[in-house]
Amino acid sequence: MNQKEQLRLLILGVLERQPEHGYAIAQAIKARSAGVLNAREGSLYPALHLLEKEGLVQSQEVEIGARLRREYRLTEAGVQALVKARGEWQAQVQAVGAVIGGAG
Amino acid sequence: MTPEQWLSLATHGLVPEAQRRVRAEYLAHLEDALEAGEEQAEVVSGWGDPVQAGRDLRRAHLTIQDAEHLTPGYAPSWKGFWRAQAEDALVVAVPVIFLLRDFLTGSAKPEDVGLSLSMVATLLMVGGLRWWLLSRVPLRPVPRAGLDWLLRPMSVFMVLLVVVLGWKLSQNLTAVVPLLRSELAASPELAFILAVLAFHVSRLRRALRAAQKVQAIQAGEQP
């Protein structure tokens, strides 16, 4: 899984909980990974827009505290893609762990 | 680099509507980040390479180049009908010019006259059908782009060519390739026609790609 695919998985993972706008997605990735992962916004928005183009997320402009923000939510296809990507990621982690050892 | 400079590079080549959307999202992000206590320079640096971001954004959004290949459609009126016919005027003029030349030189044969007139009638019908379908029938962008391409004189010509080649193939499979080779050697015009047809096919690919983007954008954006 390359960096772009990882970012897509992270975005889908964040949106699984609730619809969010771009800045909140970036903050959620940073917070949930305890600062280890940092979605560079330069690639975050193109990734979001490509996910939207593929029908995995939908967006809508909403007013948040008198400000207009574009909020993204997972579609049914997005949920399925997340399940699939999560499985692939776990298989990859297990495979790397089996090679490098140290996992007990 | 200022946010404006970054955005100007990243949104280069996008249609104005997509530019507005991208700019609004990045500027909203900047606003939220500044409110959270981040520095502007730090935020813009976090945006990364604008050229790379622009490349990715052009994959997701409609570009100015894509927009040139979209089907604008026609008005459901006589004005729209004549506009569709005018688009094909150059192609319709060819058999008419040949017909006139043959009449003026006195070399017009009844079968050639019949062929030219049926070509003109077919082209007029194709233009009319294109006008009717694109102005009256509600279609999604992809089938719309496909129909617009298919109902162009060049496409009709291609279909005829394929039918003739198919017929030749059914007659004698092995004879077609040497026939094409000899025809190409004998008439350089045929090579030109084939090049024009290849260009026409490439237009379909670009039109479908642009229409797919529009369809995806329409499906992704909730009302």
Automatic annotation (TrEMBL), chain A:
InterPro entries in the record: Tscrpt_reg_PadR_N (IPR005149), WH-like_DNA-bd_sf (IPR036388), WH_DNA-bd_sf (IPR036390)
Protein name: PadR family transcriptional regulator
UniProt domain Transcription regulator PadR N-terminal: residue ranges: 11-82
SUPFAM superfamilies per the UniProt record, alphabetical: Winged helix' DNA-binding domain
TrEMBL record, chain B:
Source organism superkingdom: Bacteria
Keywords: Membrane, Transmembrane, Transmembrane helix
Sequence intervals crossing the membrane: 114-133, 145-167
Protein name: Uncharacterized protein
